[in-house]
Design a protein that fits this description.
mainly alpha; 457 residues; single chain; 77% helix
C-alpha cells in the first residue's frame, strides 16, 4: 500500500464529519439557486428571450468554469503542503455573498447591456464557486483510507445536500413568492442566500482543522500532465456517466418552474415548487443514510444503478401526469429525491475510491485535479442542460417570453416542449447513465468493512 494512504486516518468523529459536511450546503446553494431561478427570472421578470438568456449563462458557466476549476484543482494539489485545502473554503466564503447578489442585480437597461451584465457577473460567480467547490470535494478523498468510511462521508455530504436543496429549491422560491415575485424580491432573497453560504463555509473551514493533513504528500499532477488523468479508464467511465446524468439533471431542474406553471397550470408556481422541493429535501436527507446501508449489502455499483434508473423512470412518469392532483406530484417529488440521494451519494463515493486508487497505483496526488475535472463536468453539464439546451428546446417549441412576462398563456406546442424538456429528454438520459455504470464498472468482492470497492473498469 502507498505510504500516504497508509497514514490516512481510518475513522473520524461523527461531529467532524457533520461539521465538514455543512460546507455542502453552500455548494448546493451555489449550484441550485441560479439553476432553478435565474433563467425563470430573466425570462419572466426581465423579459429576455430564453435562447439569449440561456446563452448568456451557458458561455461563462462552461468556459470560465473550466479554466477556474482546472487552475484551482492543480494549484490546490501543488500548494497543499503550504496552503491546506481548507483555506480555500475561507477565501470562497468571504466572496460568496457578493457573487450571489451580483448575478441577479441585472439593471433596468437595454437587452444588450443586460446580457453583458449577466455574462460578466456570472463569470465572477463561477470563479468564486471554483475557489471553494474543488478543494472541498478533493479533501474528502484525503480524510480516510477506508472505502466504507468514504461512503459514510459522502452520505453525510449528501444529507447536507438535502438541506441545501431545502434552502435553494424550497425556501428561496417561496421567499420570492412571499416578497412579491418582482426584481426586489429576487435581490433580497439572493442576498440572504449569499450570507448563508458564507456562514456554512466558515463552519466547514473550522471543522476541517480537526482533520489531519496527509503525513506525506504524494507528487502532484502538473498542469501539463492533466491529459494523463484520462488514461485512468475507471475515472473516465465515471466521468462519461456523470456527463450524461448532470446534463439530464440540468435540463430537468431548469425546466421545473416552467413545468409547474404551464404544464401543471398552478396559479402560484413558486409556492408549489417550494412545497415540492421541501419534500425532496427531506427525502434526500432521510434517504442518504439508507442508501449507504444498501450499498454495504449490494455493493456500490448495483446501488447506483437502482437509484439512477429509478430517478429516470420517475422523471418519465411525471411528464405523463401534469394534470394529476397535486398530491400525486408530492409523491413523485419524494420518490425522485429518494433516488437522487442514492446515485448522488454513491457516485461521489466511487469518485473518492478512484482518487485513492490513483494515489496508491501511480504515487501521485490527483485529488485536486480529478475533483477539478469532476467539478467541470457537473457545472458544464448543469449549464448545458439547464440553460443552453432548455433555452433551445423551449424556443424550438415556440415558448413566448413576451407573453410570459405579460402573464399570457402559452400555445399547446410550447406546452409540449416544456414536457419534453422536463421529462422526456432527462428521463431517457438518466436511464442511459445507469446502463453505463452497469455495463462498464466492475467491483472487487466486498471487503471486511462492508461495501465493495471498484475494480479497474
Amino acid at each position: 500500500m502507498n505510504t500516504v494512504a497508509a497514514k490516512l486516518p481510518g475513522r473520524l468523529a461523527t461531529s467532524t464529519k457533520a461539521g465538514f459536511g455543512v460546507g455542502q450546503v453552500a455548494g448546493q446553494l451555489f449550484r441550485d439557486a441560479p439553476s432553478l431561478l435565474l433563467m425563470f427570472y430573466l425570462t419572466n421578470v426581465m423579459g429576455v428571450a430564453p435562447a439569449i438568456a440561456g446563452t448568456a449563462i451557458f458561455v461563462p458557466k462552461v468556459f470560465f468554469s473550466l479554466v477556474f476549476d482546472l487552475w484551482i484543482g492543480v494549484a490546490s494539489d501543488r500548494l497543499a503542503p503550504r496552503f491546506p485545502r481548507r483555506r480555500w473554503l475561507l477565501v470562497g466564503g468571504l466572496a460568496a455573498p457578493f457573487a450571489m447578489l451580483g448575478v441577479f442585480a441585472v439593471p433596468e437597461a437595454s437587452m444588450t447591456f443586460q446580457v453583458a451584465w449577466v455574462f460578466v457577473t456570472f463569470s465572477a460567480y463561477m470563479a468564486v464557486y471554483s475557489t471553494f467547490s474543488v478543494p472541498y470535494l478533493a479533501q474528502f478523498s484525503e480524510m480516510s483510507s477506508d472505502p466504507a468510511e468514504r461512503t459514510e462521508l459522502m452520505g453525510w455530504k449528501h444529507a447536507f445536500t438535502g438541506l441545501g436543496v431545502l434552502m435553494s429549491s424550497s425556501v428561496a422560491p417561496m421567499a420570492v413568492n412571499a416578497l412579491g415575485t418582482d426584481r426586489p424580491a429576487y435581490l433580497i432573497t439572493m442576498s440572504s442566500i449569499g450570507v448563508i453560504c458564507l456562514v456554512c463555509l466558515l463552519v466547514a473551514w473550522r471543522f476541517a482543522a480537526r482533520i489531519p493533513e496527509p503525513a506525506e504528500v504524494a507528487t502532484p499532477l502538473a498542469a501539463r500532465d492533466l491529459p494523463r488523468a484520462f488514461t485512468d479508464r475507471r475515472f473516465m467511465i465515471l466521468c462519461l456517466s456523470a456527463i450524461v446524468m448532470t446534463v439530464a439533471a440540468g435540463i430537468s431542474y431548469a425546466s421545473f418552474p416552467f413545468f409547474v406553471k404551464y404544464a401543471m397550470a398552478r396559479e402560484e408556481p413558486l409556492h408549489d415548487i417550494g412545497v415540492m422541493s421541501a419534500i425532496m429535501a427531506f427525502a434526500v436527507m432521510g434517504g442518504s443514510p439508507l442508501w449507504v446501508m444498501v450499498s454495504k449489502r449490494l455493493g456500490k455499483k448495483l446501488t447506483y444503478v437502482l437509484a439512477a434508473a429509478g430517478h429516470g423512470l420517475v422523471t418519465l412518469v411525471w411528464g405523463y401526469l401534469p394534470d394529476a392532483p397535486i398530491e400525486v406530484a408530492y409523491v413523485l417529488a419524494g420518490l425522485m429525491a429518494a433516488c437522487n440521494a442514492g446515485w448522488g451519494t454513491i457516485v461521489l463515493s466511487l469518485l473518492s475510491d478512484s482518487i485513492a486508487a490513483a494515489r496508491e497505483e501511480y504515487g501521485e496526488n490527483r485529488a485536486g485535479s480529478y475533483s477539478a475535472i469532476w467539478s467541470i463536468i457537473e457545472k458544464a453539464g448543469i449549464a448545458m442542460g439547464g440553460t443552453l439546451i432548455v433555452g433551445l428546446i423551449l424556443s424550438a417549441f415556440g415558448f413566448d417570453a413576451a407573453a410570459a412576462s405579460a402573464g399570457m398563456p402559452q400555445s399547446p406546442r410550447a406546452l409540449a416542449g416544456i414536457i419534453v424538456s422536463y421529462s422526456t429528454v432527462p428521463g431517457i438520459a438518466k436511464l442511459v447513465a445507469a446502463a453505463m455504470i452497469w455495463r462498464y464498472v466492475h467491483e472487487h468482492p466486498s471487503n471486511s468493512q462492508g461495501g465493495a470497492t471498484p475494480a479497474h473498469a
